[in-house]
Amino acid sequence: MTRGPTLPAHRLPCLPRPLDAFNAAPADEARALLLRCLRSLRWSDRIADHRPYPDLDALLAAADEAAYDLSPADLSEALAAECLPELPEDTYSAAHMALSAAHAAYEARFGHVFVIYLGDAHPDEAIDRTLEGIRSRLANDPDEERVIAAEELRRLARGRLTAFLSGASTTRARPHPADHG
Predict the structure, then answer these.
(1) Is the pLDDT reported for residue 157 higher than 80?
(2) What pLDDT digit, counting tens, does each position of 166-180 carry?
(3) pTM beyond 0.90, yes or no
(4) Which end of the chain, C or N, has fewer beta carbons within 10 A?
């Protein structure tokens, strides 16, 4: 039995990877994406100006390196744009009150919002880790806390960049509070 000619293999269209789209995006669009992730104009500009990046690891390394060079003003700008992580809707009111009181004490002591990277925490542990972090860091002197806050900002930025460039579009804005995952 003779068979007719076979059709050529079907090939799926090659869709651009999010990092490729980021690398090719106009400068103002790339800076806007970076500003949502990094919260500092200078930090965002430095990363946007060094595009293209061969892979996500190279971008994250550049973001880390630039984070270590933030001036006190750049760090203040990034901290001013942060907010506390959102609590799950079913969190009891006493936890909200405890978190509000702890954050008020922290902000009074250090003059900026408390930042903490919770990307590796189970959602059920977020409030406990946040409260524990605030309470333990209240004992820091302001200079020591500024160093810790800068490190947490760096970790938050890495998490945001990784999440965004692992599948989201460069034109879609992420909600600000949800960035604290």
Answers:
(1) yes
(2) 864 433 333 344 344
(3) no
(4) N
Q: Which two tokens stand for residue 148?
A: 């810790």
Instruction: Convert the chain into a string of H (helix), E (strand) and C (coil).
Output: CCCCCCCCCCCCCCCCCHHHHHHHCCHHHHHHHHHHHHCCHHHHHHHHHCCCCCCHHHHHHHHHHHHHCCCHHHHHHHHHCCCCCCCCCCCCHHHHHHHHHHHHHHHHHHCCCCCCCCCCCCHHHHHHHHHHHHHHHCCCCHHHHHHHHHHHHHHHHHHHHHHHCCCCCCCCCCCCHHHCC
All structural domains of the chain, each given as residue ranges with its CATH number in brackets, are: 18-179 (1.10.3330.10)
